[in-house]
């Protein structure tokens, strides 16, 4: 079996205590969409572990973190490698009948209404509802001039790697794994809808068809769900902050019940495809 979970936010004691309850899966794999503090527990319980970074891992905290941007990211990659965890910088690995492809694309503020023609306009639009991501103060793009420029560079290099992968194994589908959603129409955050500008890039809208995806996995939104687009399955696998899943604990479940089964996954449902809201499993 191949499982996935994201946004486990181990800086919160409640989540950290829950993560320690992870049960052994000696023959299974686990995908982490953003959480570099989880490696030791994950590797001690799963045969293989894959990771891609989220925005929180890339934060450079005042007085605590000297590294920024690409250097900060590369430091996270080295930590993962020391634990034997697969990263976006490593060769993609085959698992059963699929290739697991963790990627890192960041965002470029393009998940916005069409009348907003610049990043500055998009940020001002979000600020109108008191919505500002902490990324604006803590996530630096060095050495790139902007987050948008870093995103453009990441998208180009990742596309090249994915193209090479499917050229070498044209009959093997990929499990695409990214912290940020690959499609704008999958961003559903009704409490803070204008946060969408920090949620991805339109440059990846067609990657599920372009790169022969078996499944596309993401986190970031803290809205766990299963969706289908063009007949392809998309899984949002966030755990979230403790307050966001208290009802799960109240139901007598723990983090093991929140691991999403990715492969083999569910049968493709009959059309029309409806969103499946997932609280656990």
From TrEMBL:
GO MF entries: hydrolase activity
Q: Give residue ranges for domain Calcineurin-like phosphoesterase.
A: 4-224
Q: Name one Pfam family in it.
A: Metallophos
Annotated source species? Roridomyces roridus
Listed transmembrane segments: none
What is the top-level taxon of the source organism?
Eukaryota
Report the InterPro entries cross-referenced here: Calcineurin-like_PHP, Metallo-depent_PP-like, Pantetheine_PDE
The protein in question is named: Metallo-dependent phosphatase-like protein
Q: Which residues form a coiled coil?
A: none
């Amino acid at each position: 079996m191949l499982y996935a979970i994201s946004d486990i936010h181990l800086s919160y004691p409640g989540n950290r205590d829950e993560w320690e309850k992870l049960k052994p899966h000696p023959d299974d794999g686990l995908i982490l969409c953003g959480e570099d503090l989880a490696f030791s527990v994950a590797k001690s319980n799963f045969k293989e572990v894959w990771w891609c970074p989220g925005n929180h891992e890339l934060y450079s905290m005042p007085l605590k973190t000297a590294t920024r941007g690409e250097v900060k990211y590369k430091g996270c990659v080295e930590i993962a490698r020391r634990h034997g965890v697969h990263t976006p910088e490593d060769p993609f690995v085959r698992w059963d009948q699929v290739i697991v492809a963790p990627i890192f694309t960041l965002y470029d503020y393009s998940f916005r209404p069409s009348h907003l023609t610049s990043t500055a306009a998009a940020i001002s639009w979000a600020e109108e509802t008191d919505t500002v991501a902490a990324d604006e103060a803590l996530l630096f793009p060095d050495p790139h001039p902007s987050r948008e420029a870093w995103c453009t560079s990441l998208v180009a290099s990742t596309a090249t790697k994915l193209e090479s992968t499917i050229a070498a194994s044209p009959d093997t589908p990929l499990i695409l794994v990214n912290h940020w959603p690959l499609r704008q129409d999958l961003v559903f955050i009704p409490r803070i809808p204008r946060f969408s500008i920090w949620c991805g890039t339109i440059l990846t809208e067609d990657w599920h068809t372009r790169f022969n995806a078996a499944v596309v996995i993401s986190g970031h939104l803290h809205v766990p769900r299963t969706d289908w687009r063009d007949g392809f399955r998309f899984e949002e696998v966030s755990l979230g902050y403790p307050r966001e899943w208290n009802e799960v604990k109240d139901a007598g479940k723990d983090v093991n019940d929140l691991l999403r089964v990715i492969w083999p996954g569910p049968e493709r449902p009959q059309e029309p495809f409806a969103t499946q809201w997932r609280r656990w499993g």
